Amino acid sequence: MVDSLEVCGREGAGKIELLLLSDAPDETQRLLQSKFPQIHWSPHPAGTLVIFSERFECQLCHIPYEEPEPRLFSFNNPFGACPECQGFGNTITLDLDRVIPDKTKSLAEGAIHPWTKPRYRAFQNKLLLFAERSCLDIQRPWLDLAARERNWIIQGKDGFPGILGFFDYLEQKKYKMHVRIFISRYRGYAPCLACHGERLREEARDVLVGGKRLSEVTRFTVSEATEFFGSLDLTSHQATVSEKILEEIRHRFNLLLRVGLGYLTLDRLSSSLSGGESQRIQLATSLGSTLVGATYVLDEPSIGLHARDSRRLVEILKSLSSMGNTVLVVEHDPEIMSSADYIVDLGPGAGENGGHVVYQGTYSGILNESKSLTGRYLRGELKIPTPLFRRKNSGQDVEILNAHQHNLKNLNVRIPLGLLVCISGVSGSGKSTLVHDVLYAGLKQAIGKVKEPGDGYGGIRGAEKISDVVLVDQTPIGRTPRSNPVTYLKAFDDIREIFANTRDAYARNLGRGHFSFNLSGGRCETCQGNGTTTVEMQFLADVELTCETCKGARFKSLVLEVGYKGKNIAEVLDLTVREAMQFFAGNSKLTRKLRVLDEVGLGYLRLGQSATTLSGGEAQRIKLASFISRESAGKAMYIFDEPTTGLHFDDIRKLLSAFDKLINSGNSLVVIEHNLDVLKTADWIIDLGPEGGDAGGQILFEGPPEELVECGHSYTGRFLRAYLAKHAN
Cα(180)–Cα(176) distance, rounded to whole angstroms? Predict the structure, then answer.
C-alpha cells in the first residue's frame, strides 16, 4: 500500500487521487477525515474521492501558487515585482490633467490644450461641429460640463474621435520624432491597472497575515505596525514558527519609535524624507546592529533636527557608547557638545588659519579656554545679538491658499515680503513640503518659469509683487575641477581682463580667452584645464594624477610666462580670497566681489579651489555671495533650506549679516531653520506642528519671535524661551 502511494506521488508530480469504494468501512473514512481534515473530499459514483497534493495550490479550484519565499514579497526583485509596472506601482499613460490643464476654460477658449496648436486645429473644429450636433454649450467651463458630456469628449461619439481617438491617431505617427515629443508632453504617471499600485505580483498579493496583505501593512505608520504585529492572533504552531521573526520585527519598530519616527509610514519613499528623518533612520540601524567595540563617525548628525529631537539624538549616541562603542561626532550644536565626554576643538580660524588643536578635554574645560573661539561663544563672551528692533511688516505679502500636499492640512499661509521669514517646527511637520513643493513650485509657475501647473495647493496670490524666486540650496556650484568660486561669482572674468591688458600679454598676442582653463587656446590640452588626469583602473576606482605636462598649473607654458605684479595666472588662482583682496587692491570692481565672499565667512578659500572639494555649506554661501554682489533691482524672494548646516557660531553671525544685505536691497527671505540664533533674529516666524507626519501639517503660530515664546503648545516656542532666558545676561 505504502509503495503504491509513493509510486503514485512520484509519477503524479506530487498529486495522489485516492478512491475509497462505497463498500469501504465507515471507520476507515472517519479515521482518514480525522487525520487529514484539510484534505479535499468529493463524492464519486463508486464511493468517495480523496485528493492528496504536495503542490502549493488551492484544493478546491486547483489554482497553482508560487512557494512563499522572501523574494516573492520584494518589488525590487523581478521574481516578486508586478510584471506590468516592474514594481514601480505606476505606469506612464495619458494624463488628462495635462491634456486639460485649465479646467476653468471652455471648449471655445481651448480647454483641450493639444488642439490649440496650429498643426491640430482641425480636431478643434471637429469638436465644435460635434458640440453643435450634440447641443453642447461650448462657452461653459470644462468643470461645469456634465459627466456624460465630458465622457463624450474624452471617449468620442458619432464619428467624433474624442481625446483618446486623437492620441490613438498620433500613436500611428510615432515614427516621427516631433510626434513622439508631442505625445510625451501629455503623458504622466498613473497607478498600475494590474497591481493597483501595490507593486507586487498577484501571488504575493494573495498572501494574508492577520487578514492583511503586505501592501496594506506597509501603509501603516510605524506606531500602527507595532500595534499590528504585537496583537497578531496566531495558533501555537504559527507562534512557534514566527517567534524569532516577530521578535526581530518588533525590535526594529521599537528602535524607530525610540528615535521619534513613529509617524512615518512603512512605504514612505526615501526621497521624500527630510534630512533629520534620514539621520535618525541611520542611527536606528546602527542601534539595531548591536555591535560592540566599533567606532561610529558621524558628520553633523543634528542636521535637520529640531531642538526637541536633538535631545533624543544625544540619548541614542549615549546608548551606542554605553554598548562599548566609540562615537566620534563632528558637530556645532551646543547641546551635543555639552553632553560629550571629550571635546577636541580645532582652529583658531578657517582654511590655512586653522588646522591646530586649540583645546582637547572636557566640556567644562573649553568654557575656560581663552584661545578657543568656540569656548568664547559657549560661555557667552561672544554671542549673536538679538535685534533691538524688528523690520516692520509693510502689508505686502504672498498668500498660499489651501495647501494640502502630503501632510499639510489645507493651510492658508501669508508670507510677508521684505522680511526675514523663518519656517520652523519639529522634523516631519511639513516645512519642506510647504516651502519646496508648494511655495517655490507655485511661485515658479505663477511668474512663468514653468508652464505646468503644480498640485497640492489651491492657488497663490500676490506672485506679481515679486520679480523672481530663487532656491538657494547646498547642491554643488559645479561638478568638474574647472568649476571654482571665482568663476561662479564672475570674478574670473575681471582677473582674465587684468592679465589680458598686461604688456607681456600684448607682446605674446594673448587675449582674455587664453587665460581661461575652460577654453582651448591657453589651457593645457593634456588635462583639458583640469590640472589632473584620470586613470581608469578597470574594476577598481579611478585614480586622479597630477598632469605631467602642466604640473597641475592647468595652463600652457606660454600663458604662464605672463605676469601681473610678479605672479602668473596659476599663482593668482592659488591665492586665498583675503590675499587676493590685498593683491588686487586697486581694482574696486574685482575687490567688491571678493569682499562679499569674505563677508560670508569664506575668506579662507582659494580662488581656483575646485568646486568638487567644497562642502554643502560652502557651496550655499558662495551662491549667497553671488546674489549679494549682483546689482539687482530687488523684489526677489530667496528661499534657503537649513543654511546653518555645518556652520560655526561665528559663521552664523556672518551669515545673518549677509541676510540683512539681501533684505536691505529690497528682497525677501524665506528660511527653513531650527537654529535658535537664527529664529531669534527673524522678523516673522511660521511654526508648523505639533508633531511630525499625520500629526503635523498645521500652523501653530504666525508672528514675531517675542510672541512665539508665549505659545505654550509650540515646541519651538518652549525651546526658544528657554534659550533666550539662558542667554539674557
Answer: 7
**121 within 8 A of 114, measured Cβ to Cβ:** no
Buried/exposed 452-471: b ≥16 CB within 10 Å, e otherwise: eebebbeebebbeebeebeb
Read off the pTM.
0.78
Domain count, the chain: 4
**What range does the domain containing 602 cover?**
485-611
**Boundary (domain end) residue, out of 141, 167, 191:** 191
Q: Which of 26-35, 39-48, 122-131, 533-542 has the highest mean pLDDT?
A: 122-131
The answer to whether residues 181 and 139 belong to one domain is: yes
The residue that leads in pLDDT, 468 or 10, is 468
Please provide residue 92's backbone torsions phi and psi, each rounded to the nearest 5 degrees.
-85, 125
- Residue indicated by cell numbers 506530487: 14
Describe the crossing of helices 491-500 and 588-599 by its angle, rounded to 10 degrees.
Answer: 150
Closest CA to 303 of 702, 691, 616: 616
Burial of 154 (0-12, 13-18, 19+ CB in 10 A): middle
CA distances (Å), origin 657, targets 357, 390, 631, 651, 662: 28, 14, 18, 10, 9
Q: Give the confidence band of 26 by pLDDT, cuts at 50, 70, 90.
A: low
End-to-end CA distance of the chain: 96
- Cell numbers 555591535: residue: 291
pLDDT(25) > 60? no
* Confidence at residue 60, expressed as pLDDT on a 0 to 100 scale: 66
